[in-house]
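Whether sequence alone determines local backbone shape is best considered at the level of individual chains. When preparing material for the folding task, we compiled for one chain both its residues and its backbone structure tokens. The sequence in question and its structure tokens are set out directly beneath this paragraph.
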Amino acid sequence: MGPTGPAGPAGADGPTGATGATGSIEANPYDLYVQAAAAPGGDGSQTAPFQTIQEALAEALPNGVINVLPGTYPISQQLNVSTPGLTIKGRAGAMILLQAAVVPFLLSSDDSTIDGLTMTSDNPYPVEFIQTSGDSNQILNCTIYGPEQAGDSSTWVVNRGLVTQGSSTNLLVRNNIFYSLRQPAYLNPGSTGSIIYNVVFNTRGYVVDRALFLFSGNSWGIPENAVDIALLSGTTSGAPYDPLTALEESNSSATVSDQR
């Protein structure tokens, strides 16, 4: 989990905001709230949430938290998470619904976290749901899936759970569920991190393209993936991928396509 951040400078509101003269709870930029069904004009406090995540991103401070309350959040423009140390925390029932061919979340800073969101799309779009750059970002406890596509998965639109940029280092992907996507993740050259304790099914598997990631504790559901992990040409030999038997055994008897 990412840090929840300080309470703010001396004299600032505490984690839940200060009580004003009228008795209302004021917004705290370290602890903001979003609710899709909220009334317009909210200030991001728990009693007057923002309607959109974009509004909260514009007000959030480093090491703060954006609490995404239950509801459906249509997304047609990219959300750039550029504030360092920010956590976007989804409550049970918080659904991101992609409605355009854009990458909904770009983690462009360091130490940011997306935790507990469910993401899908109204159509299969040829984009990833999350793209990462920067250092020590985290994707935790999310469920990411695409709409059903007909035919063999080799003919599906290339939609993905996440894609790393080469500048994405020390990424942690943990306790997520990915399914009904072309790929759960495409790991680009130069990116590094750990992919642990995730469940993946009905995809063509993780693609490792000259990236350096530790895979451990991952498991696979039904319908089965075309392969579970694909190691593309140019990907390193040795640790953390070799011996292949150890990679397979530490990931629930994974099917590994070794193209190196």
In short: Helices lie at 53-59, 244-249. Residues 1-23 have pLDDT under 50 and may be disordered. The CA atoms of residues 59 and 180 lie 34 Å apart. The longest helix spans residues 53-59.
